[in-house]
Specification:
Length: about 400
């Protein structure tokens, strides 16, 4: 059974409850299924609030902490809000009280706001957004806004409280992870902290037109201390060969990671991911698959901290393009489009294979332009372990306007 079940009813609010834990907020007393289930036309529903004691503790349940799903025949813009809750953790957000599946799962529902929550300690993902509609094949898990969350850390963003992985997008388009801010070098303001998870920080599978801005992925809330995601990559864009109803392979394309608005506004910090025990693991950004194309990685700090200078290297390449991926842009010609990709690689990274600023393997027609590779934002040396760029692609354009530790 579910703790709270709202079906085909709109305008409801769920405030200030312990759902799946005892009154002390830390002892599991879970519901067998989900903590909160919103189904069918359960629209304009608010789950939690940052005002007063309106946030819920939704932890220790057998299924998802919160599950939003549409009926098979339709999807809708539900305008639901999940705000100010502790999901998968104790009341104070310090220890895991795992939900058996995801912290929050959104299936074929659009227009959801996921803000100011602690989504940590869950068995699978902190947040999973999934489509497509099973009748039409159209990806309707769209227009989700994700800001102000701690995903894989405690409530303060200072220590790991791991999910299996942080955020998962599967056949989910037009979502926004993060928001631009007016932070400064002296006062960086991250939108989400996505760190400390056992596998990916963010995995985007068969998903397009998503925006990821101003997140700390692999560090603490200051952006200066590593709390790495331990799996394949801090952020991965991949395809799995799924076919749509017309027989076409579903792509992962035209996703934008970062932006050109400048430091601590749209820049992500993607640093500190991976472990020294896995020499072929722990990329900062990983893009792979023949239909993973036309993605943009721009204006990010990859391997350095939020100050642009503190080395917090990823365990492997800062950016790795693989498996036939094509027409992606790393950096670009616009002002502030270049990334700082420095300090990456671990002691077990094998020269000629791993541990570079940018690695390309079986790729085609990608552009790597105007980046700072092997130097920090102040142009001081911060070398990647085995070199700036390892080029194993075809027709990739990577020389020219990069400031590269290899001198190219």
């Amino acid at each position: 059974m579910n703790g709270v079940f709202i079906r085909s009813a709109s305008g409801n609010a769920v405030y200030g409850n312990d759902i799946g834990v005892a009154y002390n907020g830390s002892t599991p007393f879970g519901n067998a299924a989900n903590g909160v289930l919103l189904e069918n036309d359960a629209a304009s529903t608010t789950i939690g609030s940052t005002q007063g004691a309106r946030g819920n503790v939704i932890s220790g349940n057998g299924g998802d902490g919160v599950l939003l799903q549409s009926p098979l025949q339709q999807t809708f813009n539900a305008d639901n809000a999940i705000n100010g809750n502790s999901i998968g953790v104790s009341t104070d957000g310090s220890v895991a009280v795992a939900n058996g599946l995801n912290g929050v799962e959104i299936k074929d529902v659009s227009g959801t706001f996921v803000t100011n929550n602690v989504l940590s300690g869950n068995s699978s993902y902190g947040l999973a957004i999934e489509g497509p509609d099973p009748i039409t094949g159209t990806a309707y898990a769209a227009q989700t806004t994700i800001t102000g969350n701690m995903i894989g850390t405690n409530a303060y963003g200072t220590a790991a409280v791991a999910n299996g992985s942080g955020i998962y997008l599967y056949q989910a388009n037009n979502n926004t992870i993060g928001a631009a801010t007016q932070g400064t070098l002296q006062n960086p303001i991250p939108s989400n902290v996505i760190s400390g998870n056992r596998s990916w920080g963010i995995l985007m599978m068969d998903s397009s037109l998503n925006l990821v801005v101003n997140n700390y992925i692999g560090t603490d809330v200051t952006g200066l201390i590593p709390i790495g995601n331990s799996g394949e990559a801090g952020l991965a864009i991949r395809t799995d060969g799924a076919i749509d109803l017309d027989g076409n392979t579903i792509p992962s394309q035209q996703n934008t990671i970062g932006g050109v608005a400048g430091l601590n506004s749209t820049a992500n910090v993607i640093s500190g991911n991976g472990t020294a025990q896995a020499p072929n693991w722990g990329f900062g950004v990983y893009i792979a698959g023949s239909t993973a194309s036309k993605n943009i990685v721009e204006g990010d700090y990859i391997g350095v901290g939020s100050d642009g200078a503190t080395v917090i290297g990823n365990g492997n390449d800062g950016v790795f393009l693989d498996g036939g991926t094509s027409a992606n842009t790393i950096g670009g010609a616009q002002a502030n489009a270049g990334n700082v990709i420095s300090g990456n690689g671990n002691p077990k990274s094998i020269a000629g294979t791993w541990g570079y600023g940018v690695g390309l393997n079986i790729t085609n027609n990608n552009l790597i332009q105007n980046n700072t590779i092997g130097f920090d934002a102040n142009k001081k040396a911060a070398p990647n372990k085995n070199g700036g760029i390892l080029d194993g692609g075809v027709n990739d354009t990577w020389k020219g306007l990069n400031k590269n530790q290899d001198g190219t």
